[in-house]
Amino acid sequence: MKIYLAHPFDKRFEIREKELEFESMYHQELINPFYDMNKSGIDETSHDTEKIYQAVFEHYKEVVEGCLEVIDQSDMIIAYVFEDVFSIGTLQEIIYAKLKGKKVYIISRDEKVIKHCWINYFSDGIYPDLFELMNNLNLGVNTYKD
C-alpha cells in the first residue's frame, strides 16, 4: 500500500521522528515529500528555513507537480493539520487527493481542526495520532510492536 504523508514544512523534523518510528513498528512505508521525493536537489532537512523557502519558490512547479504525481500514485493520504501552524500546501494536498478519489485521513488533536467543516468534508476520518489511525483501519499492516 502506498501512503502519502502530508504535513506542514515547519513541523517536518517532529513529523519525521514519528514517521520513522511508525515505519519500523508497522513495516509500512510512508511517502514523505520532504524526505522521500526531492527531485530538485533542495536540502529540505536543513535548519536554514529562509534558504529552503527561496529554493522551493525557485522550483515551485517541479515541487508541486512531483507531489501531485505521488498523490496520484498513492492509495491514501495521511495529513497532519495543526491549528497553530499555517500550511497552504497540506490543505491543497488534502483537497487534491480527495477530489482524485483517494482516502484522506487527518491527524490532529486541535479542537478547532477536528470540528472544522472543511476538514470534515474532505476527510474520511480524524485521529489524534498516526498509531491510532492505523490501529483503527484494517489495512493489512502489522499492528504490533517488534
Walk me through the structure.
- With 146 residues, the protein is α/β, with parallel strands linked by helices.
- The chain has one domain (3-136): Rossmann fold (3-Layer(aba) Sandwich).
- It is 46% helix and 13% strand.
- The chain has helices spanning 12-26, 49-58, 60-73, 88-99, 111-114, 117-121, 130-136, and strands at 3-6, 30-31, 76-80, 103-107, 125-127.
Query: So what's the overall shape?
Result: globular
Count of all domains: 1
Query: C-alpha Rg, in Å?
Result: 15 Å
Structural class, from helix and strand content? alpha/beta
> Quick one: how many beta strands?
5
What is the CATH architecture annotation? Answer: 3-Layer(aba) Sandwich
Please summarize the sheet with the most strands.
Answer: 5 strands, parallel
Strand line-up across the major sheet: 2-1-3-4-5
Strand share of the residues? 5-15%
In short:
This protein is an alpha/beta fold. Helices cover 46% and strands 13% of the residues.
How would you describe this structure in keywords?
146 residues, 7 helices, disordered C terminus, alpha/beta, Rossmann fold, five-stranded parallel β-sheet
Give the SSE layout:
Blueprint: E1 3-6, H1 12-26, E2 30-31, H2 49-58, H3 60-73, E3 76-80, H4 88-99, E4 103-107, H5 111-114, H6 117-121, E5 125-127, H7 130-136
